[in-house]
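Now for a chain:

_____
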Amino acid sequence: MIKVMHLILIATLITSTYADKYGRLLLYGNCITCHHETKSISAPSLQIIQQRYHEAFEDKKEFVNYMVDWVYKPSHEGSIMHDMIEKYELMPELGYDKDTLEKIATYLYELQ
């Protein structure tokens, strides 16, 4: 019984680590093109986006779901960052599937 519990714990840690690294890879492989970590150059920085979404949605699931839905189909009406749209224009539809966006949003939620 103890061996089974150890195996489950190890599998959970490996899966968690993989998901974290994959979310990071997706974020830095895609989003960073327009969204710099700390500087708002051609779009709001990741830091600003994370801060605004955390202020609007303390719950991780709400944060992730709202971000996924918005990035999947960006709209001015559905945005929580109207000032950024006015400054940088509306983000284009990128064609990512919702599973990919969920991994990115989850990583961004947890990013320190």
In short: The chain has one domain: 2-110. Confidence is low (pLDDT under 50) at residues 9-18. Residues 29 and 36 are 12 Å apart (CA to CA). The two ends are 37 Å apart (CA to CA).
